[in-house]
Design brief:
Layout lengths: L4 E8 L4 H17 L6 E9 L2 E9 L4 E2 L2 E2 L3 H16 L2 E2 L2 E2 L4 E8 L2 H7 L13 E8 L8 H19 L5 E14 L2 E14 L6 H18 L10 E4 L9 H4 L2 E2 L4 H4 L20 H18 L5 E8 L8 E5 L8 H10 L8 H8 L32 H7 L1
Parallel strand pairs: 3-8, 11-12
Antiparallel strand pairs: 1-10, 2-3, 2-13, 4-5, 6-7, 9-14, 10-11, 14-15
Helix pairs in contact: 1-2, 4-5, 8-10
Length: 401
């Protein structure tokens, strides 16, 4: 592994059109899980100029059964979608929470998928799909996340907070950030480039107003990044195209699941290819990626490694994982194979079956809309939210070795 290099990660704001789609899809997931913890949801969202379209498959007691909607259910879905867009802050001519056209094309889950996933007779509940999922952790930040992604997220979170509070009224919802860090001996030592593109109010692309916007972004960066990483040599690219008045779904169509690297590790770790948002936790694209992060984070938190990648693999309808792979990238204090064996020995993990993952992490709850902007990982575990960020398995791992 190289010890001296440049590395870059990007983030996008809650108002980015793809993130609007992710948040809408997870609003639907939360709505249904709040009514039926065993609901099955696969909700995809398209956003574009004054239009939101839902598509996918569902099964939810009391809401959608036997191919029919319960009274008022579709109105409730539309209300949840509009509330999501309103919370983000879209009240623009090209995309307004109150007036966009809405289409709901959700329909019943395939019976052939259901029969493979549902438990029946002697058959344990199977995975909701085949696939490979990765988890990752490293000691670059307190949250055990890659520093480039961590700071990219934090810049946009601060800007969103200032926009909502009125501290930065010239900001509009759509934005992107990118942070490039120089690493020496595997540790970040300098920020070489910062890119921030943000949608803005009229006139903030020239003259004094443009200078005000640029000065504001630089203050945010200075507040977020450690002072020792910034210097006169740091390059800033703020709205490098010049104007960014037209943004969000009016500027570019958005789709659920197009920001999977932003959602995970900013390119610092492999990705299995499956998106998270819009999926209930029987879908291992989501739940197994969460348990893989949980395991990797606890391995680093336990002092067993400075950097850890975990891969899991599943087959649709099959409960047991096909494989478990641990790679500590030469930083482990014990062998990677010993860690693999220890994980499978921990009773509370239940062999990493889909149901045991959901039980251990408490995933059958309406906790997902919060995940759909600023990353699914590196967040603070609080109450029922972000349980995969807890480090309560560290002692079990050390005891199992």
């Amino acid at each position: 592994m190289r010890s001296d290099y440049l590395f870059t990660s990007e983030s996008v704001s809650e108002g980015h059109p793809d993130k609007v789609a992710d948040q809408i899809s997870d609003a639907v997931v939360d709505l249904f899980l709040g009514k039926d913890p065993e609901a099955r949801i696969a909700c995809e969202t398209l956003t574009t100029t004054q239009l939101v379209v839902l598509a996918g498959e569902i099964r939810c007691k009391g809401v959608y059964e036997d191919g029919a909607w319960a009274a008022g259910a579709q109105d409730e879905i539309e209300a949840a979608v509009r509330a999501t867009v309103k919370r983000i802050g879209y009240e623009q001519e090209g995309f307004h929470w109150e007036s966009f056209r809405f289409e709901n094309n959700l329909h019943a889950q395939s019976a052939h998928i259901a029969q493979g996933v549902d438990a029946s007779g002697n058959k344990d509940e199977g995975a909701g799909d085949q696939g490979i999922m990765f988890g990752f952790a490293c000691d670059e930040t307190p949250g055990l996340m890659p520093a480039t992604l961590y700071y990219s997220h934090k810049i946009l979170e601060r800007m969103a907070d200032d926009r909502h509070s009125g501290a930065a009224p010239f900001l509009e919802p759509d934005a992107k950030s990118q942070v490039t860090l120089r690493f020496h001996n595997g540790k970040p030592v300098a920020a070489t480039a910062i890119v921030v593109s943000t949608q803005h109010g009229k006139g903030y692309d020239e003259g004094e107003k443009e200078a005000e916007l640029h000065a504001y972004v630089k203050r945010v960066v200075a507040d977020i990044l450690p002072a020792e990483l910034l210097s006169d040599a740091t390059e800033y690219h703020i709205n490098p195209t010049g104007s960014f008045e037209i943004g969000g779904p009016d500027g570019d169509a958005g789709l659920t699941g197009r920001k999977i690297i932003v959602d995970t590790y900013g390119g610092a770790a492999p990705h299995g290819g499956g998106a998270f948002s819009g999926k209930d936790p029987t879908k291992v694209d989501r739940s197994a990626a969460y348990i893989a992060r949980y395991l990797a984070k606890n391995i680093v938190a336990a002092g067993l490694a400075k950097r850890c990648t975990i891969q899991l693999a599943y087959a649709i309808g099959v409960s047991k994982p096909l494989s478990l792979y641990v790679d500590t990238h030469g930083t482990g204090t014990v062998g990677d194979d010993a860690i693999e064996t220890a994980i499978m020995k921990i009773d509370k993990l239940g062999g990493l079956t889909p149901r045991s993952i959901r039980t251990h992490l408490g995933l059958n709850k309406p906790i997902y809309q919060k995940t759909a902007a600023y990353g699914h990982f590196g967040r603070t575990a609080e109450g029922d939210y972000f349980p995969w960020e807890r480090t309560d398995l560290a002692e079990d791992l050390k005891a199992a070795l």
